[in-house]
Amino acid sequence: MSVDIPSDQPVTPGTPESPVNPQVETPESPPRRIQMEFRGSGSEFFRIWIVNVLLSIVTLGIYSAWAKVRTKRYFYGNTYLDNHNFEYTADPIVILKGRIIAAVLLVGYIFAQNFFPVISGLLALAGMIIFPWFFVRAYAFNAYHSVYRGIRFRFSRSYGEAAKAYILWPFLGVITFGILYPSAILRQEKLLVEGHSYGESQFSLNIRVGQIWAIVGIMIALGVLFAIGTSVLTAIIAGVSGLEGAENRNGIFAIISMIPLFLFYFVMMAYFTVAMMNLRYGNMLIAGNQFNANYKFGAWLWLLVSNTFMIVLTLGLAIPWAMVRVVRYRASCTSLNARDMDHFVAGESNKTSALGDEVGEAFDLGFGI
Fold first, then answer.
1. Is the dihedral of CA 192, 197, 198, 202 positive or negative?
2. Please, where are the H alpha helices in 285-352?
3. CA pair distance 150, 148, nearest whole angstrom
4. Calpha distance 102→110 (Å, rounded)
5. How far apart are CA 205 and CA 199, in angstroms?
6. How many CB atoms lie under 10 A from the CB of residue 353?
7. Which helix or strand (DSSP H or E) is residue 284 part of?
8. Runs of H (alpha helix) within 116-180
9. Which has the closest alpha carbon to 297: 315, 281, 278?
10. Which residues in 8-46 are b (16+ Cβ under 10 Å) and which e?
C-alpha cells in the first residue's frame, strides 16, 4: 500500500524522496608555500661572464648591451617558481640606443662643466627634472621584457608620481632634517611595488611609515653608540700614547679611525638592506597571494664579506661566483603562498591575451633588477 506525499509538504533534502541532492561545498584548500629557486652555478656563468667582459673591451663598450641581455637571460632562466623559470626578452639594440643617449648627455654635461659652468648647472637641474621620466621608462622596459609562464610583467606609473617619490619627498626629508625621510622611503617602495603588475593583476604593498621608522631608529641609535664608543676609544689611545710626537700621530689616528667608520657603514648598509627586503617582500601580495621573506642579517653580512674577499683575492675573477651566490641566497629567502598557481596563471593568460605590445620600444638605462 503506497502513501502519496502531498505536493505542498516540505521534503528534507538528501532523503530518497528528495528530487534533487544539493551540491556539497568543499572547503577551500589551504595556501601552498612555493619556494623560489635558483639553479645556476658560478662555473657555468663564468663562461658567459668572461666572454662578455672580453667582447665589451674589444668593442669599446658597444657589446655591453648584449652582455647585459645575456646576463639577465641566464639569471632569469635559472630562477624558478613552482618549477617554471622566468624569461628575459629584451633586444640588445634597444638597450644600446638608450646607452648611447645616456653617453651623449653625460659627455655634453662634462663639456659644459669645463667650459660653460653656468650652463652645466642648468643641465644638472634639467637632468634632475627629467630623471623621473627616464626612471619610469626604464622600469617599464624591464618589466615588459620580464616573462613568467608566457605572461609579461608590466610597470605603469606616471612622471608626476615618480617625481613626487624621488624628488619632492627626498627634498622634504632634507628640509625637515630627516624627519620625513622614512616617508620618502615609503613612497618609493610603494611606487616600485604597486607600479608593477603580472598580466592584469597588480602587486600591492601593505607597509606603514612606522615600520620604516623602526628600522631607521635602530640605525640612528647604533650610530650614536658607535660615535660615543669611538670618541672614548680615541681619547684613551691619545692619553696612553702621551703628547710627545702628537703632530706625527695625528695623521695615523685619522687613518686608523677611518677603518672602524668604514666597517660600521658596511654593517649598517647590510642591516638596512636585510630589513628593507624583509619588509618589502614579506608584505607584498598579488591577487590575494602572499609573499614571504626570510633574510638573515648574519647570513647576508657573511655573504657580502666573503664575496668581497673572493673578488679581491682573485683580482675580480670571482665576480661570477659572487653574483650567483647573491642571487641564490635571495631566491632561497623568498617564497609565495598560493592556493592554485595553475588556475591563477591561466586566468591571467585569458585576461592578457588581447593586450597589445604598447611598451615595445621603451628604452633601458640600467634601472630595474
1. positive
2. 297-313, 319-332, 341-352
3. 5
4. 12
5. 17
6. 9
7. strand 284-286
8. 117-144, 159-163, 169-175
9. 278
10. eeeeeeeeeeeeeeeeeeeeeeeeeebebbbebebeebb
Exposed, middle or buried, 340 (CB in 10 Å: 0-12/13-18/19+)? middle
Instruction: Report DSSP state, residue 359.
Output: S
CA atoms within 13 A on the CB side of 358: 7
Cell 659652468 sits at which residue? 117
Contacts of 337 (CB under 8 A, 6+ apart): 31, 32, 33, 34, 289, 290, 291, 292
Distances (CA, A) of 257 to 157, 260, 350: 45, 6, 61
Q: How many C-beta atoms lie closer than 10 Å to residue 4's C-beta?
A: 5
Contact 216, 181 (CB under 8 A): yes
8 A C-beta contact, residue 72 and residue 64: no
Short-list 257, 260, 183, 170, CA closest to 222: 260
Tens of pLDDT, residue by residue, the chain (369 residues): 444 444 445 544 444 454 445 544 445 667 789 999 999 999 999 999 999 999 999 999 999 999 999 999 999 999 999 999 999 999 999 999 888 988 888 888 888 888 877 787 888 888 889 899 989 999 999 999 999 999 999 999 999 999 999 999 999 999 999 999 999 999 999 999 999 999 889 999 999 999 999 999 999 999 999 888 887 877 776 666 554 555 555 566 666 667 888 889 999 999 999 999 999 999 999 988 999 999 999 999 999 999 999 999 999 999 999 999 999 999 999 999 987 676 677 666 666 544 444 444 444 555 544
Q: At what angle do helices 92-115 and 117-144 cross, to 10 degrees?
A: 170
Residues 320 and 75: their CA atoms lie apart, in Å, by 11
CA distances from 256 to 177, 223, 243, 249, 251 (A): 30, 18, 18, 10, 9
The DSSP result for 317-329, as a single string, is: TTHHHHHHHHHHH
Please say whether the beta carbons of 68 and 338 come within 8 A: no
